Amino acid sequence: MFPEISLHILDIAENSIKAGATRIEIEVLRRTAERKLTVAVQDNGCGMDAEQLAGCTDPFFTSRTTRRVGLGIPFLKASAECTGGSFFIDSQKGRGTQIRAEYVTDHIDCIPLGDIGATVYSLILMNEAIGFFYRYGVDERQFTLDTDEMRALLGDVPFASREVAAFIREYLEENQKETDQEEIL
Ligand SMILES: Nc1ncnc2c1ncn2[C@@H]1O[C@H](COP(=O)(O)OP(=O)(O)OP(=O)(O)O)[C@@H](O)[C@H]1O
Ligand SMILES: [Mg+2]
Question: Has residue 185 been placed in a domain?
C-alpha cells in the first residue's frame, strides 16, 4: 500500500500512460462538510474489454510480463474502501478508462493526500506528449490546469525548460494554497 493518495494517483496515471493515452484527466475534489475526498482519473488509452475490466480489481490479473500480479488498481480500491469510501471503474476497449475513488477523510485508516502538486508536476514534465487536464477543488473553490491549452500558447517550447517548469510548479502551488484556504468566517 502507498502511504499517500497522490502516490496512488501517480500509479493509476502510469496505467493510462502504458495504455497509450494522449489525454489524461485528473480530478481531486474535497468536500469538507461531508469529510469526503474524491479522486478521478480518466484516459483515452486502449481501454479494456469486459473480461479485463472485471479482472483488473483482482491482484492476480495483469498484462505485466515481469511479475504475475498487478497491484495498482486493487491497492487504490482497498485504500478507499477501507475508509468506508467507494471505488468505481469503467472502461471501453479502444476508447479509454475512467476510475474514481472516494475516501472518508476522518476515518482512522484514511491516508493523507500527500503532495498532489508535485505528482501532477512530475507527470506533466515526464510526459510532454500527453495532454493533462487537472482539476483541484475544495468545496466551492477550485482551479484547473490544461497542458493542451498551454501547449497551444507555447508552441515548441518544452514544458521542461526552466521558465515553463518553474511556472507550472508555482501555478500548482499557489493555486492549491488559495484553494485550500479555509473560508474566513
Ligand atoms: N488505464 C488503463 N487502460 C487500459 N488498461 C488498464 C488501465 N489500467 C489498468 N489496466 C489493465 O489492468 C491491469 C491491472 O492494472 P494494475 O495497475 O492493477 O496492475 P499492473 O499495472 O498490471 O501492475 P502494477 O500496477 O502493479 O505495476 C493492467 O495490467 C492493464 O492490463
Ligand atoms: Mg499499474
Answer: no
Between the two ends of the chain, the Cα-to-Cα distance in Å is: 38
Show Cβ contacts of residue 65 under 8 Å, excluding neighbours closer than 6 positions.
none
Cα(20) to ligand 1 centroid in Å equals: 12
pLDDT digits (tens, 9 = 90+) for 147-181: 999 999 999 999 999 999 999 999 999 999 999 98
In short, whether 110's Cβ falls inside 6 Å of ligand 1 is no
Provide the number of structural domains found in the chain.
1
Residue 47 CB–ligand 1 contact under 6 Å:
yes
Considering only CA atoms, which of 117, 121, 104, 116 is closest in space to residue 7? 116
Domain contains 40: yes
- Quote the CA–CA distance of 130 and 180 in Å, as a whole number: 27
- Please report whether residue 56 resides in a domain: yes
Would the pLDDT of 113 be above 70? yes
Q: Domain limits at 97?
A: 5-180
Distance 59 CA to ligand 2 centre (A): 10
State which of 2, 15, 18, 95 you would mutate to test the pocket of ligand 1, scoring each by most atoms of that ligand within 8 A of its C-beta. 15
Query: pLDDT tens digit string along 61-89?
Result: 677 777 666 789 999 999 999 999 999 99
CATH of the domain at 130: 3.30.565.10
